[in-house]
Design goal:
The chain is an alpha/beta fold and 361 residues long. It is 35% helix and 17% strand. It is built from 14 helices and 15 strands. Strands 2-3-4-5-6-7-8-9 form an eight-stranded parallel β-sheet. The chain has a three-stranded antiparallel β-sheet with strand order 1-10-15. Strands 11-14 form a two-stranded antiparallel ribbon. The two termini are 36 Å apart. The protein binds (4S)-2,6-dioxohexahydropyrimidine-4-carboxylic acid and zinc ion. The site of (4S)-2,6-dioxohexahydropyrimidine-4-carboxylic acid has 11 residues, from loops.
Amino acid sequence: MKSMISLCIGLIKRIFILNSLSIIRPDDWHVHFRDHEALHYTVPATAMHFGRALVMPNLQPALTTISVVNAYYERILNALDKTVSFLPYMTLYLNENVLPDDLHHLRQYPHILGAKLYPAGATTNSNEGVHSIKKLYPLLEIMQTHDLVLQIHGEVTHGDIFDREARFIEEFLVPLTHDFPKLRIILEHISTQAAVEFVLQAPTTVAATITPHHLFYNRNQLLAGGLRPHYYCLPILKREHDQRALQQAAVSGNPKFFAGTDSAPHAKKLKENACGCAGIYSAPYALAMYAQLFDELDKIKQLNHFMSVFGAEFYHLSPNQDRIELIKKEQLIPTSLPFVNDDIIPIAAGTTLQWSIHEST
Ligand code: DOR
Ligand code: ZN
């Protein structure tokens, strides 16, 4: 009887160990919160699981000065439940009009980590983006001097949409890394094997974020069996071999690769539209999706560093101090969620995830 009980306890413990995981509270190093009323939806959804997030500056008008970034920062803090411990980090929208003085003084604002480069026309709200990277060189020089981080949307705006990331790397990023050997650069939301290979061979000043959607899907989910606007994002989902390369990079334990969800909410009516917006809303489910992917690849032990350590290290920040518990328990993603005066269709809507989040302190 006694041995039977200890056998059962052993079994329960084993099941428990295999089916739950405690990690340092993660950070989301790339998120879109939008503004005003939307903040009351987006900020709590990210703050629920993530300790910190880097908030993208592609509002309209774009956030090109310290003062508008700071005003936006205050609006985000106001949308936050004061009992939740969450820190937004900001980045300036970089274009030819950014004032050199703002970059010289950016270090005085520790919640602003750098500046984001969007090629003009490459994605949502990038019409104020950069037309000539060469013309930015004096500003990049200042960023390098002050050790500010440059986040890049790495796509050219011409040629085949499936080749735009690879072409950006060849035409702009390779020269940029040679011309600014000390500038810390993050190639955001990488989507191709070419990007993985570039980051791997680049100096340690270069890193990349990887989204849950580029890990979970390829262009078949977007296009096969019908046109599925809720899988449309930029950079567009690529080929299966690209997806596999991203998966291998994410679970590799290489500190150059870390989590950035690129959770980018657009109301349902703007997605289900003759000209649907680019962006996938993943904030409430991203952590469970990353966990599922790492588990499926038998690399769940690498999840902690990918989610919670490597990104912080790249930004010269300490990891969060508290932890979060993940459990291998099914959760059904709702088919839609309320969003401002409309609905939003989240990533993987209507499907079941194998992992859930269980808060523990
Ligand atoms: O799919 C995307 N949506 N990619 C981006 O680069 C921007 C984002 C957005 O702001 O909606
Ligand atoms: Zn983005």
